[in-house]
Fold each of these.
Amino acid sequence: MTPARRAVILGIDLGTTNSVATVFDGVESRILPVDGDSRLLPSVVSYRDAEQALVGASAKRLSRLRPDTTFRSIKRRMGTDWSAPVYGRSLTPVDISTEILKKLLAEAERQLGVPVRDAVISAPAYFNARARADTRAAGERAGFNVLKIVPEPTAAALAYGFDKGTDQTILVYDLGGGTFDISVLEVKGNNFTTRCVDGDAQLGGDNFDELVASWLLGTFRAETGVDLAALPDSEAKRRAMQLSIEAAERAKIELSETQSTTIAIPHLWTEGNASHSLAAQLRRSDFEALILPLVERTREITLRALRAARLRPQEIDRVVLVGGSTHVPLVRHMLTDMLMEPYGDIDPATCVGVGAGIQAYLLTVPGAGSTVDVVPQPLGIRIERGSDKDLFEPLIPAQSLLPQEVTREYRTVADNQAEVLVEVYQGISNRATQNTLVGYFLLDGLAPAPRGQTRIDVTFRMDEDGILHASALDQRTRRAQHITIREFQRVELAILDSQSATADLVILMDVTGSMDPFINAMKDRAIAFGDYLARSGVDYHIALIGFGDLKIHEPLLVNALTSDIRRFKEYVVHLPRTHGGDIPESSLDALRAALRLEFRPQAQRIFVLITDAPPHQPDLEGHSARDVAGLLQGAGVVTYVVSRQLKEHYRAYAPLTQNGGKYYNIEARADFREIIDTLAVDIARGLTR
């Protein structure tokens, strides 16, 4: 009887410059061709239209012709709110990385001749929880079951040390195209334990290229008088800048083998009938002078990591290099002077992919070996202390071994506080908002009590894969909320033109008891929308109005237009519930109250009405829904409505949306948050019209 064949698990190095796919059978690693005959897939994506994308060398060749729809080094954007408008879509780093992983999956299946579903994907050790979550999300969207996100230095250590039978301490120096990691690992047999990680997620070979390109543009300016960097944006300028970067990258590679190189860029710039070319000679010594501050920066981080690991340089047994930028002689000389000559019998370009494949093998073969990773940056929450509302309170320190769990008690900061917004951050600053926001959730339903009397337990648990599980528990009521940071839930609005959009937005929320199934998600999305506005550079003011039933004397809760996003978030968190009377609510009165706010003359006026109830008709001043629709249209207001798709609701609210707004069915999807996110994107599109 033929033994069952073990399912293939792909090891993937999702690199800034190139990506690699491997498989490991317990004896040897196989690096798969993934771009024609090449084992390196350039991490470049070029979009032909809204649906079709080219990946790899073909996309790289198109970068000169399609600079606006071709993306490289997208890994540096993971975990951020960056996005780009392409053929009417708003593309995020996850979207673009997904295309790279789809290509790797298709090529792997073609090479192996069998379906592939499981994968281990690498990520920089210094990636925060949000960037790691984005990496996992890209893998899942590409069609993989992502078994683990493995830190790149851990993968490199596996590629070097697996089955060597030697106990040793390894320092992995990982200088890739866009990121820099340093890790110290202790190896005992086939068990690899990370002792310390450090790095810089925005430092890599791309920075070397940018410095050389800047030098080239300076040379071009001196010879021709044309300052390309100072010219207004245009397709011709973007092409010239792309040519400069490509020439700089080639020069960097050549200078690893030679003392001098000639850089030639024909027809770099054309003015009228005059065409200007560039020819320059760059010596290795001049190149090293340009990049020396960056190499010194990696040296400082390496020494800092050794101090954190409580090791002296002479206690390191082996230095392993990862990433194409480690071919630069200045880097190798620096490490030799500081530590020892780096190990040379491993390919820096493919070793992370090889190690990811070995990690995949370890997950399926009990007792074959293990890896233990650490938290790269502190994880904690934003707290208030006295008048300071932006303190970062770490709960899980950097360098904590995974898995890790910690619980800490906090108390309310206001009398009769009904809700707490728990904001989760990661970073090294003691100011919360200077770190990376990785998630947030609301704990509501707190029992009325004086300030400081309500005790809340906040628990952080980070599992072996670096997935964060955060929760909050009211000790008195035992009410709890939690979040799992797998993919950061954010409102994607980057198609909004921040240079031209000036908007006054009013969010009108029904806060009666019947809205209980939606109210937490409604508040959560309102906060996400506010956070986006604060980051986007849009000239915005935003207001919040809560309403119930005026006929039973539940007053409107009107919070004025403000550009202070912290104040708006406080409005949202502390917006109280009401009971409501009969089924209709006072939404028309709330809309008229919104019209009385102080709007800026030049601002677009946008109202968002969220309610599960039809309106009282007429309202307290005798206005019908059509009357209010006329008032809104006369004031130039675009109104979006989220309500039920019932006849009574639709007849009343649909006329409100006829000035460019839209009607959404509150029950259309299982996740109410998706409805609000869709609405937010539609608002952004409306602002760009």
Amino acid sequence: KLPVFIYNIPSTVKTFIKPQVIVELAETCENIVGVKDSTGDWTNSLDLIARLGERTDFSIFLGSHVALGAALLFGADGGVVSIANVAPKESVALYHAAKARDIDEVHRLQKWMLRLSKMYTYGQGVSGMKACLEILGVCSARTTSPLLPLGDTEKAELRELLTELGVRE
């Protein structure tokens, strides 16, 4: 049997998988090995960590960077977060700081990521993040319909944000 991760992303699939259901699935299906919690609900994340965090055969990942540092400190195993595309070094540093229980560094990096989150306010969906990736030379900022590309003014503001945060020189 292939290992399976439950992907709880109600904003996309319009169905919320309650923590109790995830616990029951984890207890009855041996090939379910983890969950990616993209609910954006901190209480939900804490509930999952409290119920399943001690299990060595089950992993809890967050899908949002907003409280990732705290979740790692509370026992989450990691995160699959889009901000890591733009800030991979800082994302890895946040993980290592949390696992080392370096609260000051977790706090600093979490605040830094929240400042970088401004990129999500540009355009629709992933448009701002894609523009940042283009600025960094990673890929094209092209998005699929119905998302529209950002204008030159918005890209200039994002370039300034990336420079201010030290993501680019």
